[in-house]
Amino acid sequence: MKFHSCSRDGIFESVLGKYDPTIDKNWTSMAELSKHIFTELYPESKIIEASSDHEISYNHLFKTARKTANQFREMGVESGTLLHLVSENDFDWLVVLIASYLNGYVIASSHPVSPWPEVSGGIDSQCATVLVLTRKCYDRLRDEIDNPFLSHIFVTDNSGNRDSYEISLTCIRREPKKVPKYDPEELNGVCQFLFSSGTTGKAKPIKVTCEMMIHSCRRNSYPGCTEYSRSISLVTQPLTHVGGLIFGVMVGVYNGATIVLADYPGSLKFLDLIQKYKLTHVSVVPAVINSWAKYPDLEQYNLTSLKYVLTGASDPNFELIHKFAQRSGNPSLIVKNTYGATESNSCTFANIDSIPTNPISIGLALPGITFKIADLNDPPNFITEAGKQGELYIKQHYGFPLYFNDPQRTKESLTEDGFYKTGDLATLDEEFQVFISGRLKDAIKFRGFTLSASSLEDAVMQSDLVADCAVVGKSDPNCYQIPVAFVVLVNEAKLMEEKLVIESILGHVASHVSEYKQIRELYIIEKIPRNTNGKVQKFILNKLL
Asked: Is the separation of the CB atoms in 183 and 1 below 8 Å?
């Protein structure tokens, strides 16, 4: 079976078919779609705030957002305003988001624990003039808040539960010292910004249109993709990121799911939340599943409600996934490898329940997605044969607005025919299944060989002594680069002599990979630096070399 069809010019299309844009023609704004979902389709569906253990209905959330939208207008915040939010994963976040849709603002956000220079940098790159913070975030940052573009600062306070939940705004007016410079035409149709992952440096604001949002919800609701309908789904990725907001909340509410909002709890605290709320769906990076599989007390938890684990951002270790499924009493647990990018606004590939794809692959291109694999040595040419590595290019029917206020970066990220250069290395098999083998910038050039950092990380993680790891390339005068591993040890290994631990891990890797792929240096550290979406920040590790 061929999982994707291929044209003569190397363009692949999924067997799932094309996207029909006329399906969603009735929705011209996120305000209209939000009203339809929250008050007409699923008014009684629930959103639960794990930090307070409170719950409210979709309908009440929308009514609260409408009142908040009125408060913003009464305090002089006009349509078209660029607004920046700093909030935990809670009700207030969603209320301000929907209020922004209703009033025609363009919203972006920062993680609730971001230091002020990082928040201020986000305000600058977004050209925001209004800042909204929850009371907790404001109390943490109040002595540092200073940005020349800001004209209004709002602080949210909330009270009540269920149908009594309310939000109030305290407004602090300021005289802006500067006027942000950008082309207003660039914001036509834009409802919000999402920031890129920042794994290679400073995060960048990416434009999201109403059309993109609606299509993302629909394609990620393809039968057998996420199966969010009637689910109880946990959202812990920060809502500032595509994984939390789009793939977590928006696709969930589009299907009427019960959404449990929580700030990232740490790998093992997830288990408490699964047990408490009888969760059916969680979305986590592979490193979290790995830690569950190795947790000595896993059997003490009742995790039988869990049906789906959606994963991505790095290669899943299916040996550890199988171990987790067996130990948790969930042998039929479905773990899905997915693929997407902030630039594409959600998942573009996923394994589908009814189609027997290789689970290690990223699955099928979802409707509306076409792709190419560019030859690394000759990018104008594209790969159609199995086993040859290239860079994955993807295209979606509504295009890629990409980076706000940065036309040069946008131009460099697209081909002339509208494909987005993902920066991910990919290969095909004989059935045209797609496998991600690493990042183009993560490829390690060793003595003429191109090594995949992610495949070496998989080999390191197979050691029972390792709880987490990352592999980077270190400059070397003789080999150009050598592969270097940073590892976090499991508790038992921390009691052993460090030299023996290092020898054991290196020996384990050497027995699983070819000689030229072996780890040349290994360092034990306390924690692998990751961004708020769980992706390794390798630029930080490179500074340690």
From this structure: no
Q: Tell me the domains of the chain and their CATH numbers.
A: 37-182 (3.40.50.12780), 444-542 (3.30.300.30)
Q: Which structure tokens are listed for 240?
A: 């500032």
Which of 123-132, 137-146, 158-167 shows the lowest per-residue confidence on average (mean pLDDT)? 158-167
The helix (H) or strand (E) run that includes residue 34 is: helix 30-35
How far is CA 532 from each of CA 113, 204, 472, 543, rounded to the nearest angstrom? 10, 15, 20, 20
Q: In degrees rounded to 5, what are phi and psi of residue 131? A: -120, 130
pLDDT digits (tens, 9 = 90+) for 220-248: 888 888 888 889 999 988 888 888 899 88
Strands (E), 402-455: 420-428, 434-439, 444-446, 449-451
What's the rounded Cα separation, in Å, for the pair 98 and 37?
A: 12
> Do the bridges between strand 258-261 and strand 46-49 make them parallel or antiparallel, or are there none, so unpaired?
parallel
> Two tokens at 336?
């899905």
49: helix, coil or strand?
A: strand
Residues contacting 8, CB < 8 A, separation 6+: none
Look at the alpha carbons of 326, 330, 332, 333 in this order and tell me if their dihedral is positive or negative: negative
Report DSSP letters for 141-161, one per residue: HTTT---TT-SEEEEEEEE-S
- Host H or E run for residue 192: strand 190-195
CB contact at 8 A, 279 and 236: no
At 247-267, the pLDDT tens digits run 889 999 999 999 999 987 677
Tokens 């998989």 sit at which residue?
458
pTM: 0.83
* Token output for 206: 């990416």
Q: What is the DSSP track for 478-497?
A: TTEEEEEEEEEE-TTGGGS-
Token pair in block for residue 270: 């997830």
Report whether 427 contacts 386 (CB < 8 A): yes
DSSP secondary-structure letter at 200? Answer: S
- Cα(545)–Cα(542) distance, rounded to whole angstroms? 5
Q: Which of 539, 314, 339 is nearest to 439 (CA)?
A: 314
Q: Would you place residue 63 in the very low, low, confident or very high pLDDT band (cuts 50, 70, 90)?
A: very high
CA-to-CA separations, 254 to 40, 155, 218, 222, in angstroms, rounded: 12, 29, 8, 12
- DSSP-derived pairing of the beta strands 166-173 and 152-159: antiparallel
DSSP label at residue 241: S
Nearest-10 Cα torsion for 500, 501, 505, 507 = 10
